[in-house]
Design brief:
The structure holds 2 protein chains of 2 kinds.
Chain A: E1 3-9, H1 17-29, E2 34-39, H2 44-47, E3 53-55, H3 58-61, E4 83-86, E5 92-95, H4 98-107, E6 110-117, H5 119-130, E7 135-139, H6 155-176, E8 179-184, H7 191-200, E9 204-206, H8 214-223, E10 233-238, E11 242-244, E12 250-252, H9 255-265, E13 272-276, H10 288-306, E14 312-317, E15 320-325, H11 341-348
Helix pairs in contact in A: 1-10, 6-7, 7-11
Chain B: E1 3-9, H1 17-29, E2 34-39, H2 44-47, E3 53-56, H3 58-61, E4 83-86, E5 92-95, H4 98-107, E6 110-117, H5 119-130, E7 135-139, H6 155-176, E8 178-184, H7 191-200, E9 204-206, H8 214-224, E10 232-237, E11 249-250, E12 261-262, H9 265-275, E13 281-286, H10 298-316, E14 322-327, E15 330-335, H11 336-339, H12 351-358
Parallel strand pairs in B: 1-2, 1-6, 6-7, 7-14, 8-10, 8-13, 9-10
Antiparallel strand pairs in B: 2-3, 4-5, 11-12, 14-15
Helix pairs in contact in B: 1-10, 6-7, 7-12
The chains are: A alpha/beta, B alpha/beta.
Amino acid sequence: MKQRILIVNSGGDCPGMNAVIRAIAKRTHLESNWEVIGSINGFDGILSEPLELMPLTQEKVEDIQTLGGTILTTNNKRNPFNYPVLQEDGTIKKIDYTDKLIYNLKVLGFDALIHIGGNESHKISLKLYEKGVNIIGIPKTINNDLAITDYSFGFQTAAQVATEAIDKLVTTASSHNRVLILEVMGRDAGWIALSAAIAGGADVCLIPEIQFNIDKVVEKLKSRYTTEGRGFANIVVAEGAYFKNENGEIIKGNIAREIASKLRNLNFEADIRETILGHLQRGGTPIAFDRILATELGVKSVELALDKKFGTMAIHKNSGVSHINLEKVINKYNKVDLSHNLIHTAKGIGISFGD
Amino acid sequence: MKKKVLVLTGGGDCPGLNAVIRGIVKRAAQTEDWEVVGSIQSFDGVLREPTEIIELSEDTVSGIHYQGGTILGTTTKGGPLAWPVKENDGTWSFIDRSDEMIRKLKHMGVEAVISIGGDGSQRISQVLFEKGLNIIGVPKTIDNDLSATDYTFGYQTAVQIATEAVDRLVTTAASHNRVIILEVMGRDAGWIALSSAIAGGAEICLIPEIPYDINNVLKVINKRFKNGKGHVIIVVAEGAKPMNGDVLSQKNEEIGNANLKLGGIANKILKDLKTAGCDADMRETVLGHLQRGGVPIAFDRILATQFGVKAMELALESNFGKMVAYQHPSIVAVPFLEAISKYNVVKPDSSLVKTARGIGMSFGDN
């Protein structure tokens, strides 16, 4: 019997996941005594009755690198340590299913498990490794918030999508003398907002790493308008950005709408509109940069499996791929450092952070 | 009177040039005492009589980061060190006008020059710097062939365009059971070819750094075709060459352009495959200047803006004789001499080549 690799992808989807899956399959096919199988919907495929597993043949992965999403489908609510199991009385109980996972992997002859996921997923990866699973991680996040890798696939595509949104918003804002607010993803990191603001040419960029002051935002907006009310301005705001209102309460969440209503309350004269980009940032064809990066990580992860270097993660560091032990990965968030050159550049072209 | 910084773009154009110009102007606008002017068509704007110099205000550069090309125009010919002059007998000779140009710049009140250009431009900058000109360089090449910087702007846009070309060629090749050969730019480096081959999913990639044997290429094609069915995409860099063979090039007929014209390799491969006995239908596409045109992708606009801001700051610090560069995650300044000393070509043992081989791609070398 051939040796087997199982692919599990967890967490939110991200452009480039299919390129990883294809690369893993293609690299495995170069080995005559290995084969690769995918688990459907996160860990469901390997834990459900009946099992849902997809043999990843050459034909199955042909040209999927151009597709967004993941052919395996994904789920961010399937932690095998706290797995939702339907009980006979119809209720759902969360139980530790890892022994079943380990049993299934053994019975089905899986020699390695490649887990594609973000911060939370790899906490699970490490715990599974400590329980004896031959696991290898691949980082996945559109938020660029993993500190151990210079780049994560999906991020550049998200930044590109957000930039193209600003390109469009600029022309309509200038035609109507409006203030347009664009809310982008990023969780607690401002990378997408910052990148899109620089690339698209926004006037204000609000990110979680810099608490902003609404009066400073108004000041910047005013500088963009003539006394006759002519002018326009674009604000890019990260979903995790926040400010304090006049009562000292922290306003967080729904941030584009909060800012818009605040500006209206402050009697800012211009028309204000908001756009929430949402899952457009996760969909569609990955740009070349992300496909290449994803392919590099996919190939590397198989080679780590062939070398039996388990408990590791494939990363991109110093212009090349390498690997790192999983315990060094956990809780290493990559937020925008205020001394980062992108902040310096943004300020250098006059972008305001509302501070 | 405000201090003047003069900006110019030289060499082949490249998506992101306008974003650099905008970055410089916007950074200068943050100061009280600096203004920016631009020389039309590289140094020609300074050298011509009358001069062609334009004022670059925040209004001039508003929204230009979105546009490809350069609002200043550019040229790959001539320059202050080899200015073409037509003799009475109709032949051309070249004269060194650098001393005159430096005097002219001084007279115009230019305190600093920012030259955005490729390795040829950086070489000129070094000579001018040695002659006493306060000059700063910004690297520009779609070919990614400068070793001092991790990436140059324009390169990722070129890769993106080449990748989208592969995406399109895959569907038509598959429908017709064809071999399609795509020729991309890159001069003596295979970066654009290698990157677009990986991202687009080509079966064969031929680059200058790894000479190929046409029989190995044919072997891969034959393996992919069964009973006349199958398809193959070959991405070939314009500078690719067969084992024991040379790069296809022609002398440039344009006056003052010393660069050899590369190209024609896709057609050569098509013919050589036919001669070697390939009976599949074959077609070629030469991507050409589509790789230089159009809207730069976000990555390149961001990098270009970082370069522009940094270049202006070097001027503010009177830190001359250097070129800005990206060394992840920082933007640094490296002396021209260091910047132009080494080409960045694809190393056959690099992780990108290993990745390509890891998904079964052939370089035609075995």
